[in-house]
Amino acid sequence: MTQDIQVPGIQYLGDGVNDTYTFEFTADYGSDIVVIIDTVQQVEFSDYTVENLTSSGGEILFVI
What gap in Å lies between CA 14 and CA 42, rounded to an integer? Predict the structure, then answer.
């Protein structure tokens, strides 16, 4: 038996000012959230954190 897994993807265009990006899909702390900038995978807690998780989404906050 196989199970289909859907991976939501969101693409944002950075403006050099905004450091918080909202996503609207369910995730839990400890989930496999992958952040990639210009083909380089970012490291959670070094490059970004996941904040304000709810049942309908949350925010990615980049470390400046």
Answer: 15
